[in-house]
């Protein structure tokens, strides 16, 4: 199938219904100003924002919640009741799926506690969570903007990092990417997303108060572009299902728009008239597939095959592939991590 529509959006957002500083209308206006078309609000253990779900000024507002025990946070989507956070991760993940929902493991690789945040890492990376149930997959927040930034915050650099936040970013951790690749290689298909983890906290500063970071600013950073065959529907329930389906199937890529937007990249595998892109599985003959990529900017691009770099180039790539595996694209601008796609899967029929 061809996906001719690309919809930028953001997820992992906190509002005044938990510890964010913005109301849903304010957050929605910030998303609109940043050019986003969909946002997913995930307040801590609360679905209080649900009455606001729907289309507002061209932005589809979806309301899920973040399950937040002391460690092991999980973004629960498509459930209509708050899931009790006082359970073991395996139990609350099971409950989300038993209720017909699905979810995303949040900021899995936090390591540092600073004055600004506790460490909320995902403790048990062997938990039987990243495993599709009833066709519903699990996602991994491959890059969490706040987590990345706060991990690099020290008392000496804190004011510098407030004003030049890009200094505090280093991208997804190598361990998270390796975990993601391992899951997909073992057949536990796991989709990847970027989360802004927006709070717009008001923090005291020597001169008064700073807001870390305003929603409008954050919405110009980690953006998930969804690939859709049809435009988002005017009926918000149908449109919400379109967003969930595209996320779950891994028909998306994430970009840090601080280093440039990427509205129309190509990443495809072709063999004759067969055509595959992110989220697709190419099966069939051992005839090679031609992988091509174009990220539309002079970025350093790498094709990652089963967790290792297979080939690299500037802006474009072409590579013939005859091996089964998990193939995804990464791109860097000025040495900084910029773009990560979900994989194309290659499976071969046994002769
Ligand atoms: Zn969290
Ligand atoms: Zn959060």
Would you write up a description of this structure?
By secondary structure, the chain is α+β, with helices and mostly antiparallel strands. The chain folds into two domains: 5-259, Alpha-Beta Barrel (TIM Barrel), CATH 3.20.20; 266-346, Immunoglobulins (Immunoglobulin-like, Sandwich). The protein contains seven helices and 22 strands. The chain has helices at residues 24-33, 89-98, 145-151, 158-163, 174-185, 215-218, 236-248; strands at residues 5-13, 38-44, 54-56, 59-67, 74-77, 102-105, 138-144, 190-195, 201-205, 208-212, 222-228, 252-256, 266-271, 274-277, 281-282, 289-294, 300-305, 308-314, 316-321, 325-333, 336-341, 344-346. The chain has a 16-stranded mixed beta sheet that branches. Strands 14-13-16-19 form a four-stranded antiparallel beta sheet, with no helix packed on it. It has a two-stranded antiparallel ribbon with strand order 9-10. The longest helix is centred in the C-terminal third of the chain and has 13 residues, at 236-248. The protein starts with a strand and ends in a 5-residue tail after the last strand. The model has no long low-confidence stretch (mean pLDDT 88).
